[in-house]
Structure formats: structure tokens, C-alpha cells
Design brief:
Low-confidence stretches: none
Largest sheet: 5 strands, antiparallel
CATH superfamily: Dimeric alpha+beta barrel
CATH architecture: 2-Layer Sandwich
Structural class: alpha+beta
Distance between the termini: 19 Å
Mean pLDDT: 97
Number of helices: 4
Number of strands: 5
Number of domains: 1
Oligomer: single chain
Strand content: 25-35%
Length: 112
């Protein structure tokens, strides 16, 4: 089992944040997106928000590959449609690389 933490910012506007959250309610999620996540060997995904900052916790099985997930997403028209829709709410972190949305975070502490 692998665990990843990722971050992304939303455009800092209450209406945009509210609409983004609405799209992520269980009843509004697209089944094709959920399937694409599970097909990529992701077994748990949670997104948290404070202000306009998003934090994603992702647990995967040992076969997960970020490169393979990116290739699968690029080849999936429904995922591309979803990404285009979500892009109007999102803004990259200042330190994100060109074209990067969600940025992998480094773990700096663990208890015990």
C-alpha cells in the first residue's frame, strides 16, 4: 500500500469554491471518473479544503503508477471532459511545474 498527499488551489472566489464542492458531492460525481480512479489502482481518495487550498489524500495498491494513470487519463475522453470542466475552478500552486495541477507533497512528520 502506498499513500500520497497532493495539493492544489481553487480560484479564490466563494461562488467558484461552492460550485467546485457541488461537483464533488457523491450525487454529482461522474461514474466514469470514479471508474478511472479505481482502474488506476487507487483504493482510497479523499479531498479536503481550507479556504481555497485543496488537500488530496490518496492510497493505492503497490501496482499504482502516476505515469500510467496520466497516460490512462490522456486516452480517456470522459476524463478529459471532466478535467476541462474542473480547470475553470482551479489554479496551479506558485511552485507547480508547467502543466502540473495537483502537486505531490513531501511528508515531513509522522507519529510515532
Amino acid at each position: 500500500m502506498k499513500r500520497f498527499a497532493l495539493a492544489l488551489d481553487l480560484i479564490d472566489d466563494p461562488d467558484i469554491v461552492r460550485e467546485y464542492e457541488n461537483w464533488h458531492k457523491a450525487e454529482n460525481g461522474w461514474p466514469e471518473i470514479k471508474k478511472s480512479i479505481l482502474d488506476a489502482n487507487i483504493v482510497l481518495m479523499e479531498i479536503y479544503r481550507t479556504g481555497n487550498r485543496l488537500f488530496m489524500l490518496m492510497e493505492t495498491n503497490d501496482q499504482f503508477s502516476a505515469k500510467q494513470k496520466a497516460a490512462m487519463d490522456a486516452a480517456n475522453p470522459k476524463v478529459q471532459e471532466w478535467e476541462t470542466l474542473m480547470a475553470k475552478f482551479q489554479q496551479p500552486l506558485a511552485w507547480a511545474k508547467e502543466g502540473e495541477k495537483w502537486v505531490y507533497m513531501d511528508k515531513i512528520f509522522q507519529l510515532p
